[in-house]
Amino acid sequence: MNRKNVCLFKARTGCNDEYETALRERGYNVIFVPVLDHEVQSIPELRAMIERGPDGLSGIIFTSQRAVEAWRTATQDMRVPSAWAKMELYIVGPKTASLIRELAYFAESHTTVANRASELGDHLVSQQHGRLLFLAGDKRRDELPVRLAKAGIDVQELRVYATCAHPQLVTGLAQLVEPLAWVVYYSPSGYDYVMQSGIQLPSAQVAAIGPTTADHLQRHQVVVHVVAEQPKPRVLADAIADYENKN
Residue 146 class from Cβ within 10 Å (0-12 exposed, 13-18 middle, 19+ buried)? Predict the structure, then answer.
């Protein structure tokens, strides 16, 4: 039996990419097209802020894995003031939360994790807060900061990373050919860069990682056949296989 092709709009992670393993176990062939590249920014400013201590802050907002990487870069070879460990953390996405746990610095009992920014906003506006630090990227959506501003919550925003198209994106897209069963988008900006490439994609069903990505695709009139509610390889593989079994 010929394996159906699934294109993942992400870079392959090492020799044993977990998404590839999960999909191959389900009988699919996996194609990788790296879409996004990132660069950290404002590291000297963030490092100086961390060295000074929280300075009236009551919590930190992390909405992406890149923000956690920026914190890790800024604190490299630094003795972080102990007051930061007591900060309330407000996080979007289980993968982001997992990376924060790997830092082994912040207290997990002071952590709130939401699946999407709107849910985190609901939680934040229902609580009393001092000033919050939002470690953001250049492509961050307005939804959360606007919601917090309307609720009168003081937010100090620092841009700590920028997202750009991967240098091999156009080449990778141009090499995609029929038959292609599925394409999988991992982020709103990933979809945007694929569309901006101008490359006409082969016809395929669409899967999205997480509700935020799915919402973004649907706002652009893209039919999303499958949503992996969690960014986990087996959740995606099971969702695609279940959809095909039912259709």
Answer: exposed
Q: What is the pLDDT of residues 172-184, one digit of tens each?
A: 999 998 899 999 9
What sections of the chain are H helices per DSSP?
A: 18-25, 43-52, 65-74, 94-103, 117-125, 143-150, 169-174, 188-196, 211-219, 233-246
Spatial separation of the C-alpha atoms in residues 56 and 114, rounded to whole Å: 24
Question: Do 20 and 100 sit in the same domain of this protein?
Answer: no
How far apart CA 210 and CA 187 sit, in angstroms, is: 8
User: Which residue from 70, 65, 78, 82 is spatially nearest to 42, judged by alpha carbons?
Assistant: 70
Range of the domain at 137: 39-163
CATH value at residue 82: 3.40.50.10090
- Which phi and psi (to 5°) does residue 40 adopt? -75, 150
What pTM was estimated for this model as a whole? 0.71
* Separation CA 226–CA 214 (nearest Å): 9
Q: Taking Cα atoms as reference points, which of 76, 125, 116 lies closest to residue 96?
A: 116
Structural domains in the chain (count): 2
Contact 137, 64 (CB under 8 A): yes
